[in-house]
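To close the chapter, one final illustration. This time we ask the reader to focus less on the individual chains and more on the assembly as a whole: which components sit near each other, and how the overall shape emerges from the parts.
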Amino acid sequence: MFGRQNRKEEAGIDVELPITPMLDMSFQLMAFFILTFRPLPQEGQLAMYLPKDDAAEQSQVLPNIPDEDRQDEYKITVTSAQGAIATLSLQGPTSVVSIAGEGDSKIVGLEEALKRIAKPFGEGKKGPTARIEADNNLQYAQLIQVMDACRRAGFESVGVGPINPGGGEAPK
Amino acid sequence: MSHGYTGGARNKDAEPNLVPLLDMVLQLIMFFVLCANFVMDQINEDIKLPQATTAKSLDRSETDLIYLNVNERGALLPYDGDREPITAPQYITRYVARKYKERTDLNGEAEAKKTLVIIRADAHATFDSVYRVMKAVKQAGFQRLQLRAMIK
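The assembled structure is written out below.
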């Protein structure tokens, strides 16, 4: 009886938590995560309108909008030469402006022109919309530059489409 | 009596056997890490995105996403099943339509429409090749589309 009690006490004292395998595992896990860690580059989204369905719809301003809510649409036409922007023009409801300049200064010019467009103030009123019509061979990066300029000028969502709204093959 | 003695002898050098537990924990962790990688698999890292200053990082509440990767040659890179790049416009349309149907079967029509489609196109792709993917997205029935760019 006495002996058994004594043994139990000893057993209680002798129990040790085996830290070594736990540490082994922790180090292995740490090594695994360090080796596989690849910081993702910061990517972000640009919101846009879906393209319009077919040629018939291309000429309309925006589908399903009652007349009183219809917004002014500004059309930006971008032609390309070997992927780069060749000409850039901004067509409003009343006027057409050709943006002059070379390379990036065209983008800056477009941004300035878009910023000059008066936006309606007050709640519930939507501002004018912008739509980019681009040459088929335009480099995607250039299109994003134009979209970026529109967004900087306050046009949150931008629509895009090919230059010839009549459908079919675009001029090469 | 003898039972008691052997029990005592075992207790004396008793160690909680952590090895199987640790094995299992490690396996579980590996499982979750691999699962996470499968989700990220939709993103093709070979694509060099264009840069934009106004690009906004993805809202964490957006969980229902489809990524469409377009390479510099304008081919759509599928991330499941057949991994051959898709170049023909009718196959692109079919592929996106199949994605829409998968979503409809999974979540129903109303939810499928709300799925956010993100186009990750290479900066060197032509507008034409990106636009046909946009059109395919519209034709399939999706209603939300965003373009992805690097935040400058």
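Residues 19-36 of chain A form the longest helix (18 residues). The CA atoms of residues 43 and 74 of chain A lie 28 Å apart. With these observations in hand, you are ready for the problems at the end of the chapter.
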